Amino acid sequence: MHPEIIRTPLQIWRHGSSATGKTVQVKLETLQRTGSFKARGAWNRIRLLRPAERKAGVICASAGNHAQGVALASSFLNIRATIVMPLSTPEIKIIQTRLYGEPEIILHGKSLSEAYHHALALQKERGSIFIPPYDDDAVIAGQATLGLEILEQWPDVDTIVVPVGGGGLIAGIATAVLTHHDDIRVVGVQSDKADAAARSMEQNGRVAIAHAETIADGINVAEIGEKPFEILRKFHVPVIRVNDEEICFAITALCQTAKLVVEPAGAAPAAAILFHPESFE
C-alpha cells in the first residue's frame, strides 16, 4: 500500500462484546484519509497501470467513497482523474472528492447507473482507463490487504463480519483469509432492502434487484459483481440481512459506546452482531 493508505488499528468494542459474550473488535477504516477502505483497491489498480495508460488518465463513476479513493490514488501518481457523479450527489461529497488532486468532476444522470454508463461512454471517447469499484481482480486484491492486516493484528480471530454492496471488500477478505484458514468464518451483511448478494448466494446465481431505498447507501448496489460472486460461492460465504432500524440503532450504539462516527454501510456488521448473534454461533 501507499504510505498515505494506512494500516488501521483494531479497537475493542466493549458494548458489542458484552452483548454477544464474545470479544468484538472494530477495524477503523474511518481513519483512512478518505474515510473508507476504498482507497486500497483504487490504489492497487492504478499503481499497476502502464506508462501509456497513466498518460491516458483514469475515469470512474461513483457518488461517494470510490470517487474519493480514485481521486486520491490518482493524485499520488499525478494521473488525470475524471469522476462522473449522479446529479443527486450531496454537495459535501463533491467538495470532499475535489480535495484529492483536483479531479475533473462531471455531474450526469438521475442515478448511479446513468452516471456509470456516461462514464463508460466518455472512457471510449477519450481512451482513458476505467477503474471499477469492485468487479476487478486488482481492486479485490487491494481490499484483501485489510484481511491480511486483521490476521496479523488478531491471530485468534474466528469470525470476520463485512458489509456487502458490490462485493469487492468481502471478496478480498475472503480470499486473503479463507485460502489458508478454513477455521475462520467470513460473514457478509446487507440491508434487507438491497439484498442482491444475499439472494444470489441463496439461489446460487447472480440476482439483480430493482432500485431500493435504504439508509445504507454505501452498500445499496443492484447486483453483486461477477468476480466477487464467484469468490463468495467458492468459499461458501453466507450473507445475512439487517433492516434500517437495526442499522440506525448500531450507528447510535457505536457513537455512544465506542465514540465512533460510522456511516450506515459501515454500521451494518455492528447491527448484525447486536440483533442477530445467532448467526455467529
Which labels suit this protein?
281 residues, alpha/beta, Rossmann fold, 3-stranded parallel sheet, 47% helix, globular
Verbal overview:
This protein has 2 domains: 10-31 and 136-280, Rossmann fold; 39-130, Rossmann fold. Strands 5-4-3-6 form a 4-stranded parallel beta sheet, with helices on both faces. It has a 3-stranded parallel beta sheet with strand order 7-8-9, with helices on both faces. A two-stranded antiparallel ribbon has the order 1-2. The longest helix is centred in the middle third of the chain and has 17 residues, at 137-153. The protein is of the alpha/beta class and 281 residues long. It has helices spanning 14-20, 38-47, 51-56, 65-76, 91-98, 112-126, 137-153, 168-178, 196-203, 226-235, 244-258, 264-275; strands at residues 10-12, 25-27, 58-61, 81-85, 104-107, 129-130, 159-163, 185-191, 239-242. Helix 2 crosses helix 4 and helix 7 (137-153) crosses helix 8. Helix 8 (168-178) links the parallel strand 7 and strand 8. The protein is 47% helix and 13% strand.
Shape: globular
Major β-sheet strand ordering: 5-4-3-6
How much strand? 5-15%
Please indicate the count of domains.
2
Low-confidence stretches: none
Biggest sheet, in brief?
4 strands, parallel
Helix content: 40-55%
User: What would you say the CATH architecture of the largest domain is?
Assistant: 3-Layer(aba) Sandwich
CATH hierarchy, class of the largest domain: Alpha Beta
Termini Cα gap = 34 Å
Helical stretch tally:
12
What is the string of SSEs from the N terminus onward? EHEHHEHEHEHEHEHEHHEHH
Oligomer: single chain
Quickly give the structural class. Answer: alpha/beta
Nearest-angstrom radius of gyration?
18 Å
Task: Name the average pLDDT.
Answer: 95
CATH topology of the largest domain: Rossmann fold
Q: Total number of β-strand segments?
A: 9
